Amino acid sequence: MKKHTLSALAVAAASFAGAAHAQNTVTLYGLIDAGVMYTSNQSGSSNVQQTSGALNGSRWGLRGSEDLGGGLKTIFVLESGFSISNGTAKQGSRMFGRQAFVGLSSDQAGTVTLGRQYDSVVDNLGGLALNGTQYGGTIASHPYDNDNLNNSFRVSNSLKYQSVNYGGLKFNALYGFSNSAGGFSNNRAYSVGATYTFGGLKAGAGYLQLNNSGSTINSSGAVSDDATFTASRQRTYGAGLNYAFGAANVGFVFTQTQLGNLTAINSSNAGATTSLTGNSARFSNYEINARYAFTPAFTLSGAYTYTDASLEGVSPKYHQFTLQADYALSKRTDVYAEGAYQRVVDGEGKIHADIMGVSASNSNSQAVATVGIRHRF
Q: What SUPFAM superfamilies does the record tag this protein with (predicted)?
């Protein structure tokens, strides 16, 4: 009898452990992107360099969930960016600079999270543009990544809501607090957006606003040392769509960024800041993109982006072409070759070409070519 009782207890304990394991998960994941890049004009000279994250930023992270029952669960993500070239942390040397949030997710009501997160323009448009995906990445960004589709910055101190799926329609909203006593609007952010999916069609739209009170930015606010622009106000909005048919995918994305009292363009990838006179500025981006999977392993993708801008009293027009060939060695490892060419017209000598991820050209044109390897774990 005693032996049967002990056996029953052992079975019950094993069942409980199995159930606990199934209901509580923590996953370690990451991506490593390393390559060699040639730049035709980088601060006046050509350059060949070893790169980290030329297409997609190298990162590692932890994501987990706990099942609370009744369709409710706790979720969290901690994600750190780093350079594979020298092992240093990215995103201003933050421990978890890419993402850091915790929240509750309900099958019926949606998800609420708090922490450092992506805004609604990134969430709803990033996957529709070439630079927001693995098929183009950083060097396919719109000039200066003015619309943040390449995730140049995240929103700290943020509260975010993501709806459930209503027959293909999902929407979200985010508010980033300034965390400043007596300065509620000094470095705050808010955004809203939505996506709709039906068959091979996916459409999205989003709006983002960053507010700063005066010329002094509250450094503990929503967007600080990784902000693309130093300005009193930034408004970014846009819409786009992708359509997949067979092995092909085509898309179009429009975004516009409006800036008030723009005093600097901060290029974190190039490690430089361009000082400006403090006037208003505007960037209107029109991107057409396509990709085709010739085989399950080999994909060719490309994009053309036309950017009509108003900057420093002139109206530069940016023309950028990007082409990528990618070959998957396995489900987790691929090799790639990508090139980009940018030409600026009507810059009147004030505005030079500046492909994201490298130092600006000292002329109106710039070309970049890179080969590399990506591994996911």
A: Porins
> Helix, strand or coil for residue 308?
strand
Is 194 inside a domain boundary? yes
CATH number for 346: 2.40.160.10
Residue 23 lies in a domain: no
Structural domain includes residue 94: no
Quick: pLDDT tens for 122-150.
999 999 999 989 999 999 999 999 999 99
The Cα–Cα gap between 240 and 125 comes to 7
Give how far the C-alpha of residue 144 lies from the chain's centroid of Cα atoms, to the nearest Å: 13
* Tally of residues, the chain: 377
How many angstroms separate the CA atoms of 324 and 288, rounded?
Answer: 14
CA diameter of the chain: 94
From the list 195, 191, 128, the residue with the least C-alpha distance to 166 is 195
- Cα of first residue to Cα of last residue in the chain, in angstroms, is 49
CA distance 72 to 34: 39
Contact 250, 232 (CB under 8 A): no
Provide the whole-model pTM.
0.89
Q: Phi and psi at residue 226, in whole multiples of 5°?
A: -110, 15
In a domain, 72, yes or no: no
Both tokens of 370, joined, read 């890179």
Residue with tokens 């070893």: 50
Distances (CA, A) of 97 to 77, 101, 115: 11, 11, 11
Spatial separation of the C-alpha atoms in residues 170 and 312, rounded to whole Å: 39
269-324 pLDDT, tens digit each: 444 567 788 789 999 999 999 999 999 999 999 999 999 999 988 999 999 999 99
Return the SS3 of 320: strand
